[in-house]
Fold this sequence. Notes:
- By secondary structure, chain A is mainly alpha-helical.
- Chain A has a domain at 65-292.
- In chain A, 70% of the residues lie in helices and 3% in strands.
- Chain A has helices at 13-38, 42-55, 57-82, 90-107, 116-142, 146-166, 201-217, 220-230, 232-238, 242-269, 280-290, 295-318, 324-340, 342-345, and strands at residues 3-7, 346-350.
- The model of chain A has no long low-confidence stretch (mean pLDDT 89).
- Chain B has 3 domains: 6-232, Rossmann fold (3-Layer(aba) Sandwich), CATH 3.40.50.300; 248-332 and 418-503, Rossmann fold (3-Layer(aba) Sandwich), CATH 3.40.50; 343-416, no CATH class.
- Chain B is built from 16 helices and 23 strands.
- Chain B is globular.
- Chain B is α/β, with parallel strands linked by helices.
- In chain B, helix 11 packs across helix 12 (372-385), helix 11 (351-359) runs parallel beside helix 13 (402-415) and helix 12 (372-385) packs across helix 13 (402-415).
- Chain B starts with 5 loop residues before the first strand and ends in a 7-residue tail after the last helix.
- Classes of the chains: A mainly alpha, B alpha/beta.
- The A-B interface holds A 4, 9-11, 214, 218-221, 223, 226-227, 230-231, 233-234, 236-241, 351-354 and B 56, 70, 72-73, 300-302, 324-329, 335, 337, 339, 342-349, 353, 356-358, 360, 365, 368-370, 395-396, 398-399.
Amino acid sequence: xxxxxxxxxxxxxxxxxxxxxxxxxxxxxxxxxxxxxxxxxxxxxxxxxxxxxxxxxxxxxxxxxxxxxxxxxxxxxxxxxxxxxxxxxxxxxxxxxxxxxxxxxxxxxxxxxxxxxxxxxxxxxxxxxxxxxxxxxxxxxxxxxxxxxxxxxxxxxxxxxxxxxxxxxxxxxxxxxxxxxxxxxxxxxxxxxxxxxxxxxxxxxxxxxxxxxxxxxxxxxxxxxxxxxxxxxxxxxxxxxxxxxxxxxxxxxxxxxxxxxxxxxxxxxxxxxxxxxxxxxxxxxxxxxxxxxxxxxxxxxxxxxxxxxxxxxxxxxxxxxxxxxxxxxxxxxxxxxxxxxxxxxxxxxxxxxxxxx
Amino acid sequence: xxxxxxxxxxxxxxxxxxxxxxxxxxxxxxxxxxxxxxxxxxxxxxxxxxxxxxxxxxxxxxxxxxxxxxxxxxxxxxxxxxxxxxxxxxxxxxxxxxxxxxxxxxxxxxxxxxxxxxxxxxxxxxxxxxxxxxxxxxxxxxxxxxxxxxxxxxxxxxxxxxxxxxxxxxxxxxxxxxxxxxxxxxxxxxxxxxxxxxxxxxxxxxxxxxxxxxxxxxxxxxxxxxxxxxxxxxxxxxxxxxxxxxxxxxxxxxxxxxxxxxxxxxxxxxxxxxxxxxxxxxxxxxxxxxxxxxxxxxxxxxxxxxxxxxxxxxxxxxxxxxxxxxxxxxxxxxxxxxxxxxxxxxxxxxxxxxxxxxxxxxxxxxxxxxxxxxxxxxxxxxxxxxxxxxxxxxxxxxxxxxxxxxxxxxxxxxxxxxxxxxxxxxxxxxxxxxxxxxxxxxxxxxxxxxxxxxxxxxxxxxxxxxxxxxxxxxxxxxxxxxxxxxxxxxxxxxxxxxxxxxx
Lengths: 357, 503
């Protein structure tokens, strides 16, 4: 007996909440089957991966620390995704943010004052926005796909970072390691909770989320972006500017990623080095979609993804899970989500039967 | 008497609390052209979906050639010999005509192309089999749909408002097609609101009102007035008496507009000139696909001209050729496009949010934020004033029937009180009562001094409401014809190009 998909007349709110949860469950089951096949003890992996991040305050504080850049970037990207401006180059914008922010402590290592870290964050945001402005320009002017351009700009950003670290910005006292000087005290974002590495950037990320909520759910400009994503012809009909939507989407996404990059070097890193991003720019794409591109959903999905990072580290140490396992988990989660999300707009009907939605 | 081809007994279907079909009885004899008449929301489309297997009935029995059936899918219905042409077309826009057809009709592409051409010639349904569907006009898309159905050799062909997009000449050829089909034993279920058409070709009519059957009649024995009364349950609204007016200043002027679209499938416009005065209605007649869509975009601002050509379009005396749609709207212009879903309205958004699309300047946005209360009030006003049948402002636009969404969009644009109003296909797919109401309101706007431009493929409609008519054919506009001393046939001749050389 076959199963058909029937389009719902209205999107199901219930499914919009249930689909990500179902996808999560399915991904967990699939991955644990994988761990069993790989010969790991599923109980130990389960504990290390999904419970341990939450059971102790010290590991949970690390989750919050990881969550900060994911939350910032994903909220920014979601704005563009809803307008169907697909910026997948947050990684590069993140790196540029880190570079811009590092300029102050690298060039003025002796400077002191409470203005330094806020200025660094601002510069970082601007750096990210600048890096995203190029794809926006090419898209509006030449109709060049922002998907390709943003992705390629990420590769350029990585090279730029490498050049700075082995060249002009290398720490002269750093035994030839590709990294800058350690930043001075005033170039560090203040910690929020004593004894942990959680810093003020978490507050900024939460404020940024509130802003994203107002912007996307309440403002007319956000509405115009959403219309552009859903029905481009309606945008033209109403006379909303498509170019402006592209600019706004990319600048907001770039700014957020740059801010996250700045907060990373001025936070847990304390210097600019090659491994400043553990793929935050890409992971944030999954976070954004997993959160249903909704500011509130992203709050939860970023927390979850951060826990997965920490849990993955734990599982590597305590359960012998390979490094790639976390990536596999992330990837399978996104696939499950994309499959499940169809149920928001469609319902399944067995041939010949009507199943209540 | 032989068993009917299709026989329905007590068919019912509810959607939530809405009882779309109640206890429907219907017999379609073999070799009959059977009309189903009813207003929007009367349940015609639901009934057709039940027959075609798109939906399953809650109760009742369906017999096909004497056997009880319950088609579970359109595929099942098609394999039994039921074909349907929907009001909303089900074609993939990114595929070509022949690719669309090959999705359900087996055969080599080359053979299909030949068969499409053949059917097109036989039935006057000419369409380029290799053209992409997105580049076709509404009328051409319908031809594709009809051809696609004919290719599966159906025993019963369901046509949902088939003539609303065809020019008079093609309606005639379509009717000849339908009669040929009938004579070969194919029955036709014909949904229409054009009563004269039903009277001219249908031998049976079933009338629906509020989801229930209100009568089975022979339409040839009743006049249009009787039928309309059975359909809407009250007297027809009278057309607005024509008030002669001195035309005011020119509010819209196209001066020798030439336009070569980037898309090779679109029609180029050549030396298009028109003048529209305050206090008059100008109609653009023509067979679909002759440049109406391109002209509409140039007037609405969805297609912008470069700055040097800005004088080619003038509104309120100002050159606007290089302005976008929003800037033109700010001058006092409003527009109802031909496509409702995805252009005039965002299907996934609520009606409230669809109000915002063009009415955001009417106090619906304060300091950059959406005023939900004002949005809701505006939407409720549109729903109430224009008789939009919907659960409320939060219903998704895509869930409304075509006619209801059209009423909503027309209402939204009229509520903007434009001084220059442009409507493309104002009553396409809208029931007779609502269509009359929309036409009345257009005439009211004219009488109040607004300039109204109407693109329509229904000549009768244009003759009803317009002061002047110009005909578009192959991207060129005919000279202006004053309706009061023009006959329908003259317009028809311009439509098929018989006036060329004398124009």
